[in-house]
Amino acid sequence: MMKITWLGHSCFMLEAGGFRVLLDPYHEVRGLPDVHAEADAVYCSHDHFDHGYTDNVRLTTGKENPFTVVEVRTFHDGQGGKLRGDNVIRKFTANGVSAAHFGDLGHPLSPEQLAALGPCDAVLIPVGGFYTIGGAEAKAVADAVGAPVVIPMHYRDGEIGFDVLGVLDDFTGLYPPEQVKRHGSVLTLEKGMEKQVAVLEIAK
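The structure corresponding to this sequence follows.
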């Protein structure tokens, strides 16, 4: 199993075997305090302030890393990176399950990119549009990957998140209501989970 905790925006902590991986720490996101965290490793999909802010991250050492990581090079926009640069999707596998973090993906995935990514048990995917893919595009990407668990991120929720982003309902409304499952701030990812959009709360 793998423990997935949402810290807000596109920032998550993945945990397996006591090893903690921090993804896309941010600062200056409306309505959220800057991320302060301790982790054994940190990965950023790109170097923008709301995804690559590591100043407040304390790295620990000495633990054995159970994660294997697959990287897929993509773009932050639909024009080959001309508008916003590059983006890296990373798939983290540990204890027999895999979760892929899509960063600020700005376009559909090519067959080659899908093949490089391979099967996933969960996708952590932006759904807010404007800077990234929007709800319909995110659903199409998630469907193409085929992961049973889809965790939306990078959207606006009231006073939280950039005001140009779409809201969560724009994405969840594309799915049957019974597939939308609300969790706390933590999801324990296991093999064979039911197909769902897993809506997480921001960890306090």
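The chain has a mean pLDDT of 91.
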